[in-house]
Amino acid sequence: MTLLYALDLLGTAAFAASGALAGIRRNMDIFGVLVLGLVTATGGGTVRDLLLGDTPPFIFKDETYLYLSLAVSLAVFLFHRRLDRMLHPLTYFDAVGLGTFVVIGTGKGLEFNLGFVGSVMMGVMTATAGGMVRDLLSARVPMVLQKEVYASACLIGGALLYLLHRHTSLPHAWSLLLSAGTVIVLRLLAVRYNWSLPRAAGSDPTP
Amino acid sequence: MTLLYALDLLGTAAFAASGALAGIRRNMDIFGVLVLGLVTATGGGTVRDLLLGDTPPFIFKDETYLYLSLAVSLAVFLFHRRLDRMLHPLTYFDAVGLGTFVVIGTGKGLEFNLGFVGSVMMGVMTATAGGMVRDLLSARVPMVLQKEVYASACLIGGALLYLLHRHTSLPHAWSLLLSAGTVIVLRLLAVRYNWSLPRAAGSDPTP
Amino acid sequence: MTLLYALDLLGTAAFAASGALAGIRRNMDIFGVLVLGLVTATGGGTVRDLLLGDTPPFIFKDETYLYLSLAVSLAVFLFHRRLDRMLHPLTYFDAVGLGTFVVIGTGKGLEFNLGFVGSVMMGVMTATAGGMVRDLLSARVPMVLQKEVYASACLIGGALLYLLHRHTSLPHAWSLLLSAGTVIVLRLLAVRYNWSLPRAAGSDPTP
């Protein structure tokens, strides 16, 4: 499906840019910046493929992802001071990446006949594990565990795809687009309205 | 073996509770608490299965582990303030989990024809890698590397199972129970008497 | 190739010593010191084998690596205060390990028919991932992402091996030695002259 591949590459580029920026903020050298860009963009899909036993992971079967991630990270390293006016569009591209990665991951879980939780986990992991590794390599608690409705949007989109695929006769392409669109819209609404999830600490732990 | 499966589920629940509590202490949102509970309970066995090439890992073949870990973590998130009177039994359940995870892991290493060190490593990893990932996701040095006779009890139990299985004619079920029991007893004694391992820093590095 | 195996073991021992020293500096107990030695020495090759789907990883097929790493780490734990006069040779052994691990990793990528970036990544990962995990387990930003021309030497050596193997008729053993030698010389020059890579922060981000 060519549209999905195009969205996948767009998301890969957006994730690579966010990873490279994190490396620059941590004062890493050029190697560190390239590694953080690469890991953020491709780490989630790599972990998914390892768990599914589909080795070598997708990045070694189609090196486009590797070249794209490295090129974007290098561009960010060279021109990051002119990147300020790119930060607004980056939020949109990042949301597109999130939605695309979720449906690709959940779709692959379905293909490998995983159950409901397993398939949804594959989607969430594809979208968030790269960012987790980026934060671990920066010696930080992963952002996704602490704030924002980032993972929840992925959970909902993954669950939607699983249900549409297993329990309706909707064409697969439509299920993919609908689920990815749901993630993207939820993510952008969360950014726009600054939604956050309940936490247990404080006086009222019940959500 | 039904008893082993029951003990495995009990240990999974105890590990999930300890992971969820760590997430609450780090002020994570509900997603973070669920992820930490899940990872602590199932991460060790997942790493073991990845290393053995037995993919997809056990949690995707029997989703009971996933549902149980998520349910326990959710319960901890909702009711953690009433959990204080649970902390004492939790130590016992945790020790049961430790012993069970060690013999399941070492047993699987034996099944895959690993050598002595490899089989024991599989047992220790099944029991401790989930907690290590929990600590990494909290940006902390893994507890198991720093204090308490936690891993040593696992090492002894794993080595015992390997020796009993390879060099005696004891029925496998007996070997499993004896080894798991050894880990559980050692662990509870270590908690009770506050044992600790030698460390190299300080004036007398020789143990 | 027996020479390569001997160099591999020498590198394994050097990496184990550096990992064990890191554990001692972080005041870990004996279990932590052994784990850090083991992970630093064998983690890179293990991650490589996982990514290639070559499971169980090499350490479980030839336990020599495990016994050697544990023995060296134990020796460092016991005698680390007499190790000062060993630190100078350790730099050389470490460089030998770096070169050997790069050509073994890149060679294995070639064997599994990976492309250019994939093969070079396998080499760099074999040489650096163990140290990254060591730093993560110490709750530190991986050294390799921050300073010194450590990974760059690996990149150059891996790329050289790929090109020699795919585009010349040089005997494979010669390509291996030439590439490993390049890494070793670059690494020692970098230590000697204190080379470092450009970083983006500061007033002139362009290298």
Automatic annotation (TrEMBL), chains A, B, C:
The cross-references to InterPro entries, in alphabetical order and at most eight, read: Gly_transporter
Describe its membrane topology: Multi-pass membrane protein
What are the record keywords, sorted? Cell membrane, Membrane, Transmembrane, Transmembrane helix
For the keyword Signal, the answer is no
Which spans are transmembrane here?
Answer: 92-110, 116-137, 149-165, 171-190
Task: Give the Glycine transporter domain ranges.
Answer: 6-81, 92-165
State the family it belongs to.
Belongs to the UPF0126 family.
> What protein am I looking at?
Conserved inner membrane protein YadS
User: Where is the organism placed in the taxonomic lineage, from the top?
Assistant: Bacteria, Pseudomonadati, Thermodesulfobacteriota, Desulfuromonadia, Geobacterales
